[in-house]
Each structure stands twice: as C-alpha cells, then as structure tokens.
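pinging the channel bc i need a second pair of eyes. not urgent but kinda urgent?? the chain im working w is below, pasted from the shared doc
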Amino acid sequence: RVAVDPQAAAALAVIAADEAGHAELGWAVLEWCAAAGGDAVRRVVVAARTDLAVPRVPVLPADLPADVADAHGRGTPPALARMLVDLHAGVLHRLDSLVGSPAVPMVAP
C-alpha cells in the first residue's frame, strides 16, 4: 500500500524499511534457535503456529473520508483485510519452510 501524500509516503517508506529489518532479525533468531535447539524447538514452534491468527483490521474513525485514508496509506477496511490475509499466509509459509510442517518435510540439521 502506498500513500498518495508525498510526505506520508516518505515517512511510511522509512518506517517500513525499519520494520522489515526487525522482521528479518526475528526470522534469523528463529532460524538459529531451530538449528541450535533441534526437534524440541521445532515442536514448540510448530505447536505455537496453530495460534497464529490473521491480525484484525484496525478500526478507522467512522468520519474518516476514504480519500484521506488513501492519501495516508491506510486504504479501505476490505483492502486492509486482504493485505493482512496475504501477510499472514506469507508468515505461515516462511515458518513452515523454516521449521517444517506436514506440508514441508523437515531436514535434519
């Protein structure tokens, strides 16, 4: 999602890059934990995976005009919902690739 307002777009780009770095660090830590902890860690992560729900769509103020939401990169609730579902699916896929799941066979470290 890209904001129409140039200042909002610039600010969101900085925030997104920073958050992407945090996410990659988290994946690197999880990868290390899975490698160092072996099957015990993998079992815990796979069990926790079942609790990962699609995040809720943030509630926007009822009086917020759609063009203002678009200008600041918020989008409409249906668009946000689709984005969150896609994000959730991507996280699950990467998690399955990392620790293994019934769909992705585990490879011994």
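so Confidence is low (pLDDT under 50) at residues 103-109. and The CA atoms of residues 43 and 84 lie 26 Å apart. — does that match what u expected or am i reading it wrong
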